[in-house]
Amino acid sequence: MVLIRPFPVPTEGIKLQLAGVEAFVDNEVHGKGNLFVTEANIAWVRSDSGDGFKIAYKKMTLHAISRDPGVHSKACLYIMINGNTLDEDDNFEVESPAEVEDGEEEMTEIRFVPEDESALDEMYKAVQDCSLLHPDPSSDLSNEDPDEMFEGFPAGNGDGNPQDEIAEEDEDFDEDAERLEQFMRMQLHFGNSRNGGSDNEDDNIGGGSPSLSFVPQPGQFDDI
Amino acid sequence: MLFYSFFKSLIGKEVVVELKNDLAICGTLHSVDQYLNLKLTEINVTDPDKYPHMLSVKNCFIRGSVIRYVQLPGDEVDTQLLQDATRKESMHSKQ
């Protein structure tokens, strides 16, 4: 259940602001309002009543543009939300342990319909860029316990445990890894040159470079 | 960064992405970033009855943190090479 309540108009870190955007939450119409894509969250505020809601980037599963007139009469930005609340602060409805065991996780579907369809690409891009400012804490693989990465895997091809195999095959394995690295570099190179011609930033998440260009400084984008 | 590079090598190939909310999306891998966020094109959902809105969607951006599995095109992956590289990565991170 999504709570629509009096909502202050965002003032900081606004990446995109668009008026006359119709909002649907799980197919429920909420009228027209202003859409704000900010560095902290996505907010929508009804123009007449001032009621609205915000979406935390970390609650988002995916976002996409829907243009099929057979499904929706007007093209829209579709956002799938993990769970039945839009914001991490909205813990008024705590998921019961039973639901978690079920494996059937709740989800919420939001659609934003702009007056002018041509705004969709810009909306999509703004959501993508700001979403990159909020990576999941666990997505940093280097912080993971390496032992954990092997959990659940069968113990390699051989009879011994994986550790023994590594020790035995160390030389081959260095060579192979080198080969793979070269292969990866080659792929990266081709990948970049293929996209490089168009120079279209949209073709590459995060600008197409492996550099951490979207990583915020600690505290820089802390939610207020 | 190994898996980032690895997925980059699969760009343009067809994959099936299974999400933690049990949605499975089949599509062409368009791009990937260091958080393993994936962009897919020409997508299909395997369970359109449950997710009718997804029928109208052709491309999407998936947050890496919501992905449970990615089914890879078997022919495109040198599994031996990948296995060795993951071991090497693991060894390095232990040192």
TrEMBL record, chain A:
Name of the protein in its database record: Methylosome subunit pICln
* Region: Disordered, residue numbers: 132-224
Chief place where the protein resides: cytoplasm
Give the Acidic residues compositional bias ranges. Answer: 165-178
Q: Which InterPro entries match?
A: ICln, ICln/Lot5/Saf5, PH-like_dom_sf
Q: Which GO terms describe its biological process?
A: cell volume homeostasis; chloride transport; mRNA cis splicing, via spliceosome; spliceosomal snRNP assembly
Work out whether the entry's keyword set contains Cytoplasm: yes
User: Which spans does this entry mark as compositional bias, Low complexity?
Assistant: 132-141
Instruction: List, alphabetically, the GO terms of the cellular component aspect.
Output: cytosol; methylosome; pICln-Sm protein complex; plasma membrane; spliceosomal complex
Give the signal peptide, or none: none
Q: Where in the cell is it found?
A: Cytoplasm; Nucleus
Record key words, sorted: Cytoplasm, Nucleus
The answer to whether UniProt assigns keyword Nucleus to this entry is yes
> What job does the chain carry out?
Involved in both the assembly of spliceosomal snRNPs and the methylation of Sm proteins. Chaperone that regulates the assembly of spliceosomal U1, U2, U4 and U5 small nuclear ribonucleoproteins (snRNPs), the building blocks of the spliceosome, and thereby plays an important role in the splicing of cellular pre-mRNAs. Most spliceosomal snRNPs contain a common set of Sm proteins SNRPB, SNRPD1, SNRPD2, SNRPD3, SNRPE, SNRPF and SNRPG that assemble in a heptameric protein ring on the Sm site of the small nuclear RNA to form the core snRNP (Sm core).
Per the record, the similarity remark reads:
Belongs to the pICln (TC 1.A.47) family.
Automatic annotation (TrEMBL), chain B:
Compartments reported by the entry:
Nucleus
Question: Domain Sm: where?
Answer: 2-76
Which residues span the membrane?
none
One GO cellular component term, please give it: P-body
**CDD domains per UniProt:** LSm2 (cd01725)
Task: Say if the entry is tagged with keyword Protein biosynthesis.
Answer: no
Biological process according to GO: mRNA splicing, via spliceosome
User: Is Hydrolase set as a keyword in this record?
Assistant: no
For this protein, the record's InterPro entries field holds: LSM_dom_sf, Sm, Sm_dom_euk/arc, U6_snRNA_Lsm2
Query: Which UniProt keywords are listed?
Result: mRNA processing, mRNA splicing, Nucleus, Ribonucleoprotein, RNA-binding, Spliceosome
Concerning PANTHER family, the annotation shows:
SNRNP CORE PROTEIN FAMILY MEMBER (PTHR13829), U6 SNRNA-ASSOCIATED SM-LIKE PROTEIN LSM2 (PTHR13829:SF2)
What functional role does this protein have? Binds specifically to the 3'-terminal U-tract of U6 snRNA.
Record protein name field = U6 snRNA-associated Sm-like protein LSm2
